[in-house]
Amino acid sequence: MSSTPEGKWTADHRSMAKRRFRFTRNDWMGYLFSAPLIIGVVVFAIYPMFAALFMSFHQTSGLNLSGAWVGLSNYRYALEDSLFWQALTNTFMMGIWSVLLGIVLSFILASLINNLKWNLGRNFFKAVYFLPNVVSGVATSLLFSFLFFPSKEGLINFVIGLFGMDPVGWFTNPEVARYSIVLMSLWGALGYNTIIFLAGLQSVPRDLYEAADVDGAGTYRKWWYITIPYLRPIFVFMLIMGTIGGMKRFTDVWLIGGTAGNPGGSLMTVVLYIYRNAFLASQMGLATAVSYLLFLIILILTAFLMLLNRRKDSLD
Amino acid sequence: MIDSALPKEPVRRKRITLQQLILTMALLLGSFIMIVPFLWMLVTSFDWGARLNISFPPKIWPEEPSIRTYEAAFTNINMFRYIGNSTLVSAGVIVISSLSALLSGYALSKLRFKGANFVLLLALSTMMIPFEMTMIPQYLLFSKLGLVDNYLAFYLPAMNYAFGTFLAKAFFDQLPGSLREAAVLDGAKEITVFSRVYLPLCTPIIATMVILLFLGVWNDMLWPLLILKSATKYTIQIGLAMFTYNNGINQQPSIIMAATTTSLIPVIVVYMFLQRYIIESIALSGIKQ
């Protein structure tokens, strides 16, 4: 066979291909050095991702990955469960408010700090506003559970009492609890966003402002027409990171509201719903199905936000 | 200094100073709001009078100043043990994650082995997978291996630090490859080239990774909540959380605040000394992502 011209060509080609794919010592070294990363990624990210998908089609308590095959019924159960929708709504509400308030406030804050002519002051304010960011979610929740104490003894109720307002049941009134969580997470997250905005503000080219000065633009107009458009990628980055973080809310609501998401289920979030079903009710199949729904929602939101950025870019 | 030596129009300078003064005052007011929760926590933590109920009206100095609140916190909550455990977990994760990131970053940048791009792409795309989705299979994997309640459940997944790999690769890309070529020509082993030639140049990126990892691991709660079952293994976050979870939140203000303050000491100390680097690392990690 190899005597025919065609066969010879194939053999040649094959040996060439072999040479191309032959591993040199350098290649082996590369894989040896990357082995921890590759093992880590495969075992602790890729395998669990597929295992979760597999489990989501089964009814299983977790003793085995596969119990009985139930098709899409875990997904159907979640989508028909009013608690899931409540969790999703709560998560969205808290997420949207924290992201929007967080971005607006921290951008204003960063602009103010950036306008300080006084270097030491700039560094001082950066350090102070960032400080709550190193505090753990557990510590923040414990601290605010006292600051937001529902009767007049709580510090925040005391302060609003000075203005003649009645005490608010910050974490006990189902109408209010979600917004209290937003306020609490703002305290922690404000500094993080501010630091990133400050880094962005310092990257705006000086000559853009100088050109605007020549045209006689005021501070406010420069801010609106140069700074904000120039920082659009950072705004989009914040929106995406904030949305992803917001969709994963767990620690604070678990500690403050327990696994029931009290008061009145107003602090029930999607991850809390997953946690409950997986580790209290042993419904691992259902829990993984919900975790896939969460992943899909995050993917769609991220894609949407990125698209928003790209479309605006092409308009310029 | 140079700025102020330059002659300026007096009227303009005066207006700028007034504007700067208002700006500083506004920022100081904001800082005060950010700091008040810490002050309240500190004052309450030293107030024996607030061991059962929050003192009213709020005090700027403890009603019954005492360190008995801290003694009570340490006897009721096994703080020394939990802080020790957290240190053990953080140290292990920091060493494993940064080593994995540095080794792979070096290989991806300097060895340019076949399939390197694929490995990088694969690792980076897994960063999109939310931990909340993989935590259940991961938990089941560790329970199958009999590693629930074992710190290996922290150390093994630490190998997967794709973001660190990304940071390290970007850093190695800036270092010249000629260093390696010269050393290899002299017959040095690859691991020697890595550890003797390149690693000493990596201090800035190692510092960044250590800071980001420490803050992340020290403050983490969800994974320890799933993995740690016995109280002797608890990390500080989970120890604190379980104590309040079992005793009810909003109870024993000064004792809980004493424990919370203690749990913050390590991060606050690190923050005080490395504040500049932490802020730079955060800005860097934000921009790189």
UniProtKB/TrEMBL annotation, chain B:
Database matches in InterPro entries: MetI-like, MetI-like_sf
Keyword Lipid metabolism attributed: no
Membrane topology note: Multi-pass membrane protein
UniProtKB keywords: Cell membrane, Membrane, Transmembrane, Transmembrane helix, Transport
Transmembrane segments: 21-43, 88-108, 120-140, 152-172, 197-218, 255-274
GO BP term (any one): transmembrane transport
The keyword Cell membrane appears for this protein: yes
Cellular-component GO terms for this entry: plasma membrane
Gene3D superfamilies: MetI-like
The protein's name in its UniProt record: ABC transporter permease
